[in-house]
Design a protein that fits this description.
The chain is mainly alpha-helical. The protein has ten helices and no strands. The N and C termini lie far apart (99 Å).
């Protein structure tokens, strides 16, 4: 599953919000430089500084979420994406935040939560093909993990298939045993006949 981190980063480097102070802007740019060099720990630190004075700074939040994911702080990334979903009203940012959160949840094998998150991403943007593909993958994975209960007939067939086949030696032994028992029965019948004088008399 692919996360749309670099696309979001480029998007937010290009877009300047008028309400941001120049100092916050410099901190975000510094974080972006660290991010490009794959120094995610330092990038996250810079983005956190930018969020400090202005907790509604969605640019810094997006990039902090991306950095957290990249440095394998997945719980932190989920928390940040959840915060973004709650705070943002930007049309483009909301489905992407849901999407990224879904990817991180999927990586953590939290399949049911990731499925719901992908559904939310698609509710916001039905054209998001990546979210649709990842949703299908997550649904298939969940189905593999929790297969539907088997019918009784299938269970019986499976049991019969699992029963070990009898070896030739075992079959011969069983056959001998049956023959022995049959002999014993015949001998007992003969004894009983001789006791009663050879059976019933015939009427002439």
């Amino acid at each position: 599953m692919r996360i749309r981190l670099t696309i979001l980063l480029i998007l937010f480097i290009c877009c300047n919000s008028y309400g941001e102070s120049q100092e916050v802007e410099k901190i975000i740019q510094s974080g972006n430089e660290f991010y490009k060099k794959q120094q995610y720990e330092q990038a996250a630190s810079e983005y956190s500084k930018a969020i400090g004075p202005d907790s509604s700074n969605t640019r810094a939040l997006v990039n902090l979420g991306n950095s957290s994911y990249k440095k394998n702080s997945r719980d932190e990334a989920i928390k940040i994406y959840s915060e973004l979903v709650a705070k943002t009203k930007k049309i483009g940012l909301l489905p992407n935040s849901y999407y990224n959160k879904g990817v991180v949840l999927g990586k953590q094998q939290k399949l049911e939560e990731s499925i719901e998150t992908y559904k939310n991403a698609l509710r916001q943007n039905p054209d998001n093909t990546e979210a649709r593909e990842n949703l299908q993958k997550a649904l298939l994975e969940l189905k593999k993990k929790n297969p539907p209960p088997k019918k009784e007939k299938e269970k019986k067939q499976q049991k019969q298939q699992q029963q070990p086949k009898m070896s030739q030696k075992e079959a011969e032994q069983r056959l001998k045993l049956m023959e022995q028992k049959e002999k014993e029965v015949q001998q007992r019948l003969q004894k009983e006949k001789s006791k009663t004088g050879g059976g019933q008399t015939k009427d002439w």
